[in-house]
Amino acid sequence: MEPLTIILPAVVTLALGLGVGLIINKSKSKNVLAEVEKEAEILKQQKMLQAKEKFLQLKSEHEKEINERNQKVAVKENTIKQKEQSINQKLEELQRKQNETTSLKDNLTKQMEVLSKRQTDLDGLHGKQVQKLEAIAGLSAAEAKKELVETLKDDAKTEALNQIRDIVEEAKLTANKEAKKIVIETLQRTATEHAVENTVSTFNLENEEVKGRIIGREGRNIRALEALTGVEVIIDDSPDAIILSGFDPVRREVARLSLHKLVTDGRIHPARIEEVVTKTFKQIEAEIMETGKRTCIDLGILNLPTELVRMVGRMKYRSSYGQNLLQHSRETANLCATMAAELGLNPKIARRAGLLHDIGKVAETEPELPHALHGMKLAERYKEHPDVCNAIGAHHDECEMNNLISPIVQACDAISGARPGARREVVEAYINRLNKLEELALSYPGVLKTFAIQAGRELRVIVGADKVSDNEAAQISFDLSKKIQDEMTYPGQIKITVIRETRAVNYAK
To answer: With 80 as the cut, is the pLDDT of residue 82 above it?
Structure first.
C-alpha cells in the first residue's frame, strides 16, 4: 500500500503539470498566431500598395507613349494632307495644261489642214508649170537639173583651179626670187661638216686575254663598271671587241675612256675601276665646259649663263638622226645669223637662238614636255631674250611665233637637217616612206604609174590622157600634196609632178 500511496500522488501531480503546460502552450500559440496574422496583414497591405504604385507608373508610361504616338500620327496626317493638297493642285494644273494643249492641238490640226490644202493647190500649179516648161524645153525636170548641176560643177572646178593657179603664180613671182636668193647665199656662205654617231660604242682590244681580265672573277669588274657608269657592257663572240650600249652619250664616253685607261694601266679590279671612273667623269665635265666656252667664243655669243654653256658642251656627245647635235646647232646658228643679216634683222639674237634651239634635247632629266617647249622653259629660267625663248619653243610649231626670228630659226633648222648627208634613216623606214608615197598616189582614179625619186624628195605621177583632163591633173597634184602633208612625216619638202601625155605610135613596114 505504501508504493501506491507514493506513486498515485506523483502521477496526479504529473498529470496536473502536463495539463497546466498544455494550457500555457496553447495560450502562447494563440499569441504567436495572432502576431503572424498581424504581420501577414501588414505585408499584404505593403504589397498591395507596391502593386498599386507599379500599376500607376505603368499606366502613366503607357499614357505617355500613347500621347507620343498620337502626336507622331498627327504630324504624319498633316504631312499627308499637305502632300495631298499639293498633288491636287498639280493635278488641277496638269488638267488645265492638258485642256490648253488639246485646244492648241485642235487649232494646229485645223491650220495643218488649211496648209495641206494650200500645198496641194501649189503642187498642182507647180506641176502644170513644170509640164509647160518641159514641153517648151524638150527636157524633163530631172534631166535639166542634172545637166545644170554638172555644168555648174565643172565651171566651179575650172574657176577654182584657175584662181589657185593664179594665186600660186603670183606668190611665186613676188616671193620665190628673194627667198631663193637668201637661202642660196646663206648656204654658200656657211661651211658645213658631216658627222654621224651611234647609240653604241665599240672598244677594240689587243687580244682575247684582256677581255677575260676586264670581265673579272664571276663578272665582278663588269658589274662594277656598269653600276658606276650606267652603261651596259656587252661581251659577245665578236673578236677583240667590247660593245658599250647606252642612250646617254656622255656616260658612254666615260665608260669608253675608263676602259682605255684601265687596259693601259693593267690594274683592273672594282676599287681601281671606281677611282678611274670618278676621274674620268671629272675630266669629261671639264671637257664639256671647255667645249661650250669654245663654241660660244667661236660664234661670238657673250654672257651666256654657265648652265647653258654646259648644255652647249653636252651637245658634242649627242646625236639626232645620226647628225651631231653640236655641229647641227653651230650650223643652224650661222645660217640664222646670215639670213637675219640679209633680212635686216639682228644677227646676234638670231645666232643665239639658232645655237640654243635644241637645248631641250640635252637636259639631264627626262621631261614630259617636247624638247622645244622644254628648251624654251630652260631659256626663260635663265632670263634669255624673249625672242630667243619664242624661237626655241616655236621651231617645231608647238607654240605660236611672235617675232621674225622664230621663222628664221625654223627654216634654218630644216635646212641644216635636210641637206644631203646630214642625217640618215634606217633603211627599212626609208623604204616604207617611199612605198607609202607611191601608194598614196595610186589611190587616185586615172593614175597609171608612180615613181618616188631623188631619195623621196620628188614624186612623179603618170596619169592616163584618156581618163584625166589637164584640169583634173592639176587637181590631183594639189590634192596629193595636201594628203601627203596631213598623213606623212618627212624631212624637208616633197615635189609632186603629175605627167599627162598623149602618144601616137605607128609602125612603117
So the answer is: yes
